Amino acid sequence: MTNKIAERVSRVLFSAEQISKRAHEIGEQISVDYANGAARDTQRRPPLLVCVLHGALVFMADLAREIPTEVEYDFISVSSYGNGTSPGAVRLVKDLERPIEGRDVLIVEDIVDTGYTIDYLRRGFAARLPASIRICTLIDKVARREIDVQVDYAGFPLEQDAFIVGYGMDYRELYRNLPFIGVLKPEHIR
Ligand code: PRP
C-alpha cells in the first residue's frame, strides 16, 4: 500500500507539461496586451495580479514567472457559503492589502465554475474604481456557468463535469500539491 497521492487519480486531464506550455502562452499574451495599454499612458503602473486563494496559488506562481514584463501581486480570499438557502453567496475572508484605484487588475483563478465567485470579485473591485479588470483562469468550466461572466484569458475549457484535483485544486483540502490536474478515483471520495 502506498500513500502517494498521484496513485489516487484515475485519469490525468492536463499534464504538468500541458499546463506549463499553456501558462507560457498566456503569460506572453498578457505581457503583450498590457504593454499595448501602457504605451498609451506612461504614468500607468504595472498590472496588479490578484491571486484568489487558495486554489489559484500554484497557477499564479507559474503564470507570473511566464510574464516577462513588470507585474505586482496581491492576494484575496473568499469563501462560498455553500448552504442551500443562499446559493451563490460569497463571503470575503481576506481582502486585498492595497487600494486598486487606477490600477489594471488581473484576477487570477484556478477555475471558473458557476461564475458566482468571479462575479462577486469583479463587482466588488469595480466599486474601487480600477482602470481595468480582467479575468484569467486556468480551467474554464463553461458548461456549469450560472452567471454570465467574461473570461479574458482561459487555459483550458472543460466541458465535462468531472470533479478535478491537483495543481492547486483540492478535495477536502488535499491534492493541491499534485503537479497535474486529474480525476480522483471514486474510492477516495467520501
Ligand atoms: C474554487 C475556485 C474559485 C471558485 C469557482 O474555490 O478557486 O474561486 O471555486 O467556483 P464558482 O465559479 O462556482 O464560484 P473554492 O471555494 O473551492 O476554494 P479554494 O480556492 O480555497 O479551493
So what's the overall shape? globular
Name given to the CATH architecture: 3-Layer(aba) Sandwich
Instruction: Output the CATH topology.
Output: Rossmann fold
Bound molecules: 1-O-pyrophosphono-5-O-phosphono-alpha-D-ribofuranose
DSSP helix fraction: 10-25%
- The parts where pLDDT drops under 50 for at least 5 residues are none
Number of domains: 1
Question: Looking across the biggest beta sheet, what order are the strands in?
Answer: 4-3-2-5-6-7
Total number of beta strands:
9
Helical region count? 3
Strand percentage lies at: 25-35%
The value of Rg in angstroms is 17 Å
Order of helices and strands: EHEHEEEHEEEE
Kindly report the average pLDDT value.
93
Summarize the structure.
With 190 residues, the protein is an alpha/beta fold. It has one domain (17-80, 87-158): Rossmann fold.
